[in-house]
Amino acid sequence: MKSSSVVVIGAGIGGIATAAHLARRGLHVTVVEKNQRPGGRCDQFSQDGHHFDTGPTLLIMPLVYEAEFAALGISMRETLDLCRVDPTYTLVFDDGSQLGLTSDLDAMYRQLEAIEPNSFGGFLRYLEEGGRHYNLAMERLVGRDFRSAGEFFNLGNLPLIHSLKPLRHHYDHMSAYFQNPRLKAAFTFQDVYMGLSPFEAPATFSMMPYAEMAHGVWYPRGGMYTVVEALVDAAQRAGVEFIYEKTVERISTSGSRVTGVVLEDDSIVPADTIIANADLPYVYRDLLPPERQAERLARKRYSCSVISFFWGVDKTYPALGGHTLFLADDYRENFVSIDQQHTLPEHPSLYIHAPARLDASRAPQGEDTLIAIVPVGHMDDSREQDWVDIRDRARQAVFSRLATLGITDLEAHIKFEVNYTPLSWRQRYNLVKGATHGLAHTLTQLGYLRPKNRHARYHNLYFVGASTHPGTGVPTALISAHHVANRVCDDLAGSDVNSRHNAGFA
Questions:
Q1: pTM greater than 0.85
Q2: What pLDDT shows up at residue 141?
Q3: Max intra-chain CA distance, the chain
């Protein structure tokens, strides 16, 4: 394979990992990033001794991290200082009662039986099914690089309709294991990781609670941004060049090929291959010449968004564990408000992260660093959305929820606040509609039906990131990066063979 120049648009997890793979295989790779640092949505900032992850706040599916790090020559265990989080979450219900999700089966037995007699047996059966779903989905769907329809739609995959239950909604399927609605919510809220409602998500996603319970939820000391730093280090050691604070204005094309990127100052970075790690609908809409695919993407289903509050607090709140999730009893109405009305639920479920419980260095001594995340609908031009009002109501919802734990003075002890709304996500990361998880992971937008990793016309333009196969999240971004790097190298090797073949007849 001849030496080839590659430009990666965007230094998100997928972009960095793809760049590292390609550079390790001898290609000259340049990553162009609009922001001042790498990471994309897996971002961070610090203020007055408080340190915040602005994206993912926990590490799940560690087996994927371990395998994909190893493929880049990195030992995950030696590079990341991981501590297991157990209980993974403390769930708090409307009446103040709690459920600590833990790998301690005796503790789970006592808690579950107190909520619903005989439910522990259902819990074990649910985990057993989740294990089957995890192993099958990772092997046959997530871990596959579907390059043709025949690789997905074939007789060998037909049994997956029964074994993975993709046609059954996750929440409805929970009736086979629990009757109590709080327990159904406790083991389906993880669907929000995919920006999806459990009332629409396929029952396949029972794989997520299983992965958390069986493989653990982990926290890397120093925060999730240490994952970004490890990948950047591997990429730079392989020879990748990073250019920050430069915005790509458009992708230049010639016939059926892309030829480079044009930056905001009208300078051109030529490329034999381009990897777009920016949000896929944004790439089609803003960076490429007009085409129907941009219109088709605009009509697809998008994931929810979130409003995030980042607070530096001048006292500690021991009542809060590392991960606290407030689950509303009007669970279904929450998702109707988010997914159909594209707004903030009246009584929202929400998540509080206190990283100093897991790593004392994340806050000054005697103080706290708190992150509150409130799911909301994505931006919708067809209806009025006052994001200042929605943000303020979300903030008050957090304070109201914390009062159920006896925390009534937080507002008076906040030293500073930084907040992100859907407008922020769109502005900082070019996320269409401010949808934090990209395109939704509905049944018709999964697997081979999800947008492809290579452009249909420009065969030297590839895509990696949340809105492409296999989907959103750091583990899937790492898998996607590996797939795309393999595809690029296979295509380049094929081009070399064709060139040599044609030269023989010259």
A1: yes
A2: 77
A3: 82
